[in-house]
Amino acid sequence: MIFDGVDTDVFQCYLDHLAQSIPKSPNKRRLLILDNASWHKAKRLHWHDFEPEFLPAYSPDFNPIERLWLRLKADHFADFFARSGQELVDHLCFALNSLMDDPKSVGSQCAFRK
């Protein structure tokens, strides 16, 4: 899913897609770790069976995706300039697919370090 911005409606679309993509298991919790973006806290959100767990405010060190974004930027976007929106989307999809093809690297980037 590619959107040109983020708001409560976009996040709801993500939650709906996630609920369809991840099968519900009676013995497993469906926990979402979230930052404190306003669209994550809208009262009108339908969470399906997910349990939101919010990180402390202003704590990017606790959010493992921040380290992954830094790696993605360093590896794929340090000297990249898109000439069109489609070129940016194509390059982003390539970069994300390369990450998904290397789960060990993703795991090492997102591992919690004390």
Overview of the structural elements:
By secondary structure, this protein is mainly α. It has two domains: 8-58, no CATH class; 63-110, no CATH class. The protein has helices at residues 8-21, 64-77, 85-100, 103-110; strands at 30-34, 50-54. It has a two-stranded parallel ribbon with strand order 1-2.
Q: What's the short story on this structure?
A:
With 114 residues, this protein is mainly alpha-helical. It has 4 helices and 2 strands, in the order H-E-E-H-H-H.
Task: Describe the strand arrangement of the main beta sheet, using strand numbers.
Answer: 1-2
Q: Tell me the Rg in angstroms.
A: 16 Å
Number of helices: 4
The rounded distance between the terminal residues' Cα atoms is 34 Å
Mean pLDDT: 88
In total, the number of strands is 2
Order of SSEs: HEEHHH
Question: Which band does the percent of strand residues land in?
Answer: 5-15%
* Sheet with the most strands, sense and barrel status: 2 strands, parallel
Class inferred from helices and paired strands: mainly alpha
As residue ranges, the low-confidence spans are none
